[in-house]
Amino acid sequence: MKFRYAMVCSSNQNRSMEAHFLLKRQGFDVSSYGTGAHVKLPGPSLREPNVYDFGTPYKHMFDDLRRKDPELYKRNGILPMLKRNSTVKLAPQRWQENAADGSFDVVFTFEEKVFDMVIEDLHNRDHVLLKTVLVINLEVKDNHEEAAAGARLTLDLCQEIEAAESWEESIDEIIAGFEKQHRRKLLFSVSFY
């Protein structure tokens, strides 16, 4: 694979991690992040989410939720998701604190608010490398089924980008072909490191 990829959602739990998991299995150079202030997972009610700091190991969250209510968190898919996440990396990471990870060639986001935050963050960084980065938003609902479908679509798009002679010259055609084939509208922008 010739490019470095980043998958970004709000909490680096479901959508970004499902895509990270799939792309990593396919041999891609991939990392994942969240843009939120904290990591939020569903709780016993909408008003009672489980909130963790970025950097809290997935295993710690798994143990915490299994202690609180193993049936609830197994039934709603949170425990299996955390178990999967812990096989991919140690803990959720925050996009805004990832400068030490180096630059990426392509960044995928899975909701427009996250796309806007990534673009703003890239805009506010020092552009010392003057290296282009393609940022694509594929809107994906934050549930397990949609995350799995979104990850497969992301893999398809990554394979198209990898196959292109130069994504800078063919991105318009790649995006148009993807939108037509999958009937999904994408946002994309080119930024710089």
Question: Could you explain the architecture of this structure?
Answer:
Helix content is 46%, strand content 19%. The chain has 193 residues and is an alpha/beta fold. The strands form 2 sheets. The protein has a 5-stranded mixed β-sheet, with helices on both faces. It has a two-stranded antiparallel ribbon with strand order 3-4. β3 (39-41) and β4 form a beta hairpin. The protein starts with a strand and ends with a strand. The model has no long low-confidence stretch (mean pLDDT 97).
Distance linking N and C termini? 20 Å
- In terms of DSSP E residues, the strand content is 15-25%
Residue stretches low in confidence (pLDDT < 50, at least 5 long) are none
Number of beta strands: 7
Strand pairing plus helix content: what structural class?
Answer: alpha/beta
Widest β-sheet, arrangement of strands: 2-1-5-6-7
Could you state the oligomeric state of the chains shown?
single chain
Number of helices: 7
Mean pLDDT: 97
Which secondary structure elements does this structure contain, and how are they paired or packed?
Elements (H helix, E strand, L loop, with lengths): L3 E6 L5 H11 L3 E6 L4 E3 L8 E3 L5 H11 L1 H6 L2 H11 L17 E4 L2 H13 L7 E7 L5 H20 L3 H16 L3 E7 L1
Any key phrases for this structure?
193 residues, two-stranded antiparallel sheet, 5-stranded mixed beta sheet, alpha/beta, 7 strands, 46% helix, 7 helices
Describe what is shown at a glance.
The chain is α/β, with parallel strands linked by helices and 193 residues long.
